[in-house]
Structures are given as structure tokens and as C-alpha cells.
Amino acid sequence: MRTQHWQPRRARESIGLVFAAACWHTVGMATIYLAGPLFCGPRQAWHRAVKARIETETGHAVIWPFELFTQEAIEAWGQDAPRQVMTHCRDALAACSLVVALLDGTQVDDGTAWEIGFAHARCITVLGVRTDSRNVGDVPGAVVNSMIHASCETIVRGVDDLVALLRKY
């Protein structure tokens, strides 16, 4: 049975009651949006493997943007492709109750950063995954850009830790 549950966040406390009132979520099996760069083979393989582990080991459904449309659809959209891609991803993201975002690299992928910001603004919990051993935060205590870091409920350092955390959702 699904119940209403308040999911507290540090940011909600500082913004106030008007923002906080919009941050109730339905608790149950989460639908997860898997965010991260997906334009090269190794990243696609990583996302496929993580998606499979999350679905198999936690029972949560995973939406991966790479599977939302085909290359043929993108070509058919022509000049409207950027808007169509964004709309499909935005709508899928809005339908999710949780975001898992890959934060590797010297900078977080710009599309991933947009997805994190969108989710945070809509009070959708964001869990970051940073397997990269480099800390590239711009302030003490941040492993990535401080805006990204603070938008994540938590940042784990590996897929095993992610799966263990997702079992609690």
C-alpha cells in the first residue's frame, strides 16, 4: 500500500514552508530516472549494467533516457530534435520519484546537471554516484561542484553502495 511520506531535505528547511508544502512524495516502489552521460559505448555499458542491477536487486523500475527514443526518431524530428529530446527526458524525469545521477569526470555532464537541477526544484530525491577517485569540488567538503553536491541527498562512491542504499527506498 502506498502512503504519503515527508522526505526532508536540508534545502527545504532554508527555503521555507511554501516550498516545503510541495515536497510530499508517495512512498512505495520507486521509479528511478538514471541520469548521466550516454553518448559513448563505455558509459552506455555502465548504465545498462547499473539499470539491470537496480531492477534485479531492488525491484525498482528504472527509466534510462537512452531508451526513450531511437536514433531514427531523432533524425525524423529534424530541426525540432533538441526540443523533442528535452521534452521526452523532462516528462520522464517528472514522472519519477527518485533520480540516480552519475557524477564522474572533471565536470558533471551538462545534461546530467540540468536533470539534477530539475529534479531538485521539483523535490525529487537525487542520489549521486561518483566512482571517479578525483575530488573536483569547488568548496571544502564537496566532491563535485557545490551546486550539484548540495542538490544530491547523498553521493555514494560505488554501485554496490548505491544498490544497498536503494534497498531502503
UniProtKB/TrEMBL annotation:
Transmembrane regions: 15-35
Name of the protein described by the UniProt record: Nucleoside 2-deoxyribosyltransferase
Signal peptide bounds: none
Pfam short name (any one): Nuc_deoxyrib_tr
Lineage of producing organism: Bacteria, Pseudomonadati, Thermodesulfobacteriota, Desulfovibrionia, Desulfovibrionales
UniProt keyword list: Membrane, Transmembrane, Transmembrane helix
Gene3D superfamilies referenced in this protein's UniProt entry, alphabetically: 3.40.50.450
GO BP field: deoxyribonucleoside monophosphate catabolic process
GO molecular function (one): 5-hydroxymethyl-dUMP N-hydrolase activity
